């Protein structure tokens, strides 16, 4: 071990242990911060610079609880929950994931606070008018899709495309976000004509479509009778068994519903009525 | 790339009733006498490669510790690595120095064996972006080091290959093989062949296109790189392009996260490739070559002499990256330069390593996804009901995606002509609809529900005759057998269990002659060497993956509460046997 150099801050040493610093605000109050599990680089959802709509919602919820967010950053991939909400070290844990699908069973979801859907994205004024997966044009044009999850787990509309024999003309886009592969790559590909259309989860599509100079159409994809669902209720997620926090958060969702909906709209999230699916 | 991480994404459904974990050989024989001990080979004082030698035999002729003396084996010294995550692989011994590696942060320690208690000569702690674990997602394990001519080589999680001065631990060179932010990592041990160090890549789930790379041992400069999928000039072998639709070969998977072996006479090295890229099988029609393949490559050019695909158009995640052991075997009355591979898909392949001719292909665990392998075409005879689909619940597929055997390497003893194989006895259901999310996006995905195979034990350590494709004996293990094997000239076979036992068993009968409970579960590979004091030592890393006791239990959450109870109960049970913590335990006779 290296010898001490210069001054030595005892407080800094203490603060190296996160748990000891929790909630020690400038005013000396000791209110526990709200631990938020979030992806450090995944707009429009969240990023380290707190620019995503989930960051805004986290701040809103924390303020309603009289505290501030404390972020635990981790890529939203295999191992996300295990390494954040369920981390071995208590000091490394967080308590809330801002956006999980209602049926997501690695956490305890609250009641849903918004519902969105997978959408088609294509350029306006190029003669395309895709309204469903049964449109015969889908066999002829190039379609961009996101690759998600582990093997065999593409987005649901992509599974249904392959059931309809649309296979050869589908192009995959990685969800490993990086400088070389930004989250809006799939939308940029549509705008640049590299693909004719794309199938994208609504919140991601809405944000980038609204910010693109090229006029783009965004159309919800209806599920056929035997199809998988394409629309999902989204909820907050807490640790399994944390009923107390779940119920506090559900009260916050009720009280701040208007502001939350405004944040979602500001970010261009296509919102559906929670009770309805898009069907045809 | 998957082994541990698959477990994370996998829901263990375990039977609540007690399973037998007794170390009872299933087929004891009387042939315990064995051949007389022969003098050990001088070079076996050292353990110079991850799997001992170029043929990946994991056999040492040392025999001071033998079937008579092993009962007196006891701990000589121990060493804590200071790292908690899963410890795969094992140390090297060169001269009187032992080189011990750890999982991320990928530390290397040089221990001085000439001094009492083996103090640290140097410690190497690489600077890796702390984000690599969070971003790279998958395994943080490391399977070991390579040594050549005063230099230690190591692959790191952030895809750097480094050369270290073996005397000082100073970095000589460092070369980045890929971008971890694109899902690439390296977990495998490199191998030095002549003036080149050969490395692979992990990350098949994320559409990484697998490759092997040769770097100059002196400078680190890349000499060649060959891909698993794509045009002939980039693969070093024809036949890939026509087995993919469109340009899907570009994210074709076929990563190379396993072991290497090398035949200097044929000047061919052998490696496997993993599952095809992240893609619904319906979206990637075709055989998807050369995923799930054994390659025989020329180390000078990287070009392949032959390639054999074990599982065409994979639907089960049977990564074909397990080690290829090179031995000369009598097959059907004829001596063959053989290659033996125990694949995740449950079949053991005995091949002619000169030509790639398939000689024997028999199941070494319970297999029901295929009826067998057609020796003429090399293709599995698939069972249609056991093909997985994203929208159908396919029940009871054996083996599970974790494989009949995972990366834990086998050993071969020339004294018995038998292979010693740690196996998993796990089957799986592919469930249809389950909402997941990644990168903020919900998806409906197949989930894998694993459960013990026939008999209820989750693993078995077996002896296998690769000339005929027959099991000789087996020791049932309660948990999956996740540690590698070691064969010795003393006819004692060593292997570790997930509970933390290191066992010494009789090479001929499977009788347990000795065992010791190490501080944590063993997923590493035991090795042996002669110390500067002239005594034979056995060493093994213990340190179970963080998932087993706490992590995985925390991620388990099947909708069925009965199943949840079952799973939680099962992992509480693992936690009782073992907790995290990397420790090297070294044994010797008194």
Backbone structural class of chain B: mainly beta
Distance between the termini of chain B: 42 Å
Portion in helices of chain A: 25-40%
Number of DSSP strand runs of chain B: 41
Q: Which CATH-level-2 architecture of the largest domain in chain A?
A: 3-Layer(aba) Sandwich
Strand content of chain A: 15-25%
What kind of sheet is the major sheet of chain B? 5 strands, mixed
Question: Count the strands of chain A?
Answer: 12
What's the CATH class of chain B, please?
Mainly Beta
Give the total of domains of chain A. 2
Strand content of chain B: 35-45%
Q: Helix share of residues of chain B?
A: under 10%
Compute the average pLDDT of chain B. 86
**Number of helical runs of chain B?**
5
Instruction: Give me the number of helical elements of chain A.
Output: 9
Enter the CATH topology name of chain B: Methanol Dehydrogenase, Chain A
Report what the structure shows.
The complex is a heterodimer of chains A (280) and B (590). Chain A is of the alpha/beta class. Chain A folds into 2 domains: 22-113 and 232-266, 3-Layer(aba) Sandwich (D-Maltodextrin-Binding Protein, domain 2), CATH 3.40.190; 116-220, Periplasmic binding protein-like II (D-Maltodextrin-Binding Protein, domain 2, 3-Layer(aba) Sandwich), CATH 3.40.190. Chain A is built from 9 helices and 12 strands. In chain A, strands 1, 4, 5, 6, 7, 8, 9, 10, 11 and 12 form a 10-stranded mixed β-sheet that branches. In chain A, strands 2-3 form a two-stranded antiparallel ribbon. In chain A, strand 8 (143-146), helix 5 and strand 9 form a beta-alpha-beta unit. In chain A, helix 3 (53-64) runs antiparallel to helix 9 (257-266). Mean pLDDT of chain A is 84; it is low at 1-29. Chain B has 590 residues and is mainly β. Chain B is built from 5 helices and 41 strands.
